[in-house]
């Protein structure tokens, strides 16, 4: 395949940062179709429209997800990318790999595709960019039989679950994100690979409120570690921070000397609920006012730790700005025990109750958060069997009318009937 003139793309190599253009040119020495990738992207920059046709019914036998069909709309001009399907490969929990495994994966991809990858896509999956339809089945065979690795999710199904490093490396993790993500991934293979939902559905697992996988912004069910009791305080370590003997922020500085540590300025005054103060040389915390923002723990990790009664907060309904704009997930369950001891039974029951409702009332291409918006949070809480709490209130009620269900008012319907009869008898 011939090289193409790419003056617009070439500009992307002129900056100080690594460029995908340089990588593609290098890959094209082994995979000539990459010259056509560069040519078509150059044409897209020139015409200011994409020349990829997204979609198409293409996949592997028995699976409805995992392959994103993509074809060129100028195949005669760029025959090397006539077919250019994306393959989503389910990532291991927390994206832990051995170098041997990665090399084997790349050997398979060089054999069946363009060799281009995206580690990792915003879905969390390993993204293998560009293969032909006739290579999909052989690629799938090699992935599953040689690597024991499966395809990820795509389409209106459960997307590949994702989690943070959890207790494998992080001292703040309040539950075992690795085990939770693994067990639910195994349990819901059918939901991942055979689309049957109104639209995509994601759950992500963060071990603490730092939320390192951004679950609250990106997932339909965000399971974010938290604690129910008080923050643990080492007052001796607090004094060491104040004395300047311990570096704040775990010693993570950006090459700038911030001067002497000031606990009042850098911790107490930055508490969003003002629930901290110094008294008699000791740090005090009114834990019932704490919102678990993690700031104080992040700044003084040797002095402060999460409590010991740990679990997770479960939020529902985040999404990207496809229809009504981006939205964060809404807190639904403030605290839930997340434990492998009961096989995550409570969380599984919660998720499946959402699915049962959403699959019945959700519109086509409507995320759970949009369905919640449409029916209203009170209705959703009632369906989920969750009692309303102050944390569910986004803003004060502006509607002056209050409507009650008959069952919420003792003897309501019967009382109204009696009143009606009494007035008409009079």
Automatic annotation (TrEMBL):
One of its GO terms (molecular function) is dissimilatory sulfite reductase (NADH) activity. Pfam families: NIR_SIR. The lineage of its organism: Bacteria, Pseudomonadati, Thermodesulfobacteriota, Desulfobulbia, Desulfobulbales. Its EC number is 1.8.99.5. Residues 281-309 form the 4Fe-4S ferredoxin-type domain. Keywords: 4Fe-4S, Iron, Iron-sulfur, Metal-binding, Oxidoreductase. This is Sulfite reductase alpha subunit. SUPFAM superfamilies: 4Fe-4S ferredoxins, Nitrite and sulphite reductase 4Fe-4S domain-like, Nitrite/Sulfite reductase N-terminal domain-like.
